[in-house]
Write a structure and sequence with these properties.
Layout lengths: L25 E2 L5 E2 L4 H6 L4 E6 L4 E5 L28 E6 L9
Antiparallel strand pairs: 1-2, 3-4, 3-5
The chain binds zinc ion.
The site of zinc ion (ZN) has 7 residues, from loops.
Length: 106
Amino acid sequence: MSRPPGDWGKGQGEPVPRHRRNPKRAYDTEGREIEPATIANARANGAIGLIAECECGHEARIPFAGLPDDAYVPDVALKLQCSACGARGNRITTWPDWTGARRGEA
Ligand SMILES: [Zn+2]
């Protein structure tokens, strides 16, 4: 965990105890929930779609087409079902697909 504090931005609201945290959310160093990126944010930052990975190791690419702009990226997983093992969203993780995006280049 060498990620510098502040890299994820600042959380909002009251600190949330560890056992009550939502596994689909990030929390800041004080335990406050950080609002995740939305589909619109990810697209504006150059992502070409989403990548979904199941706990079984199956990975799929999901195009933005058909996803609502205001949906949170990690919450898209909740609507998915793994085509390999049949697992549902709480065992699937989604994040932006930066393939080909010009990101991190100075
Ligand atoms: Zn699976």
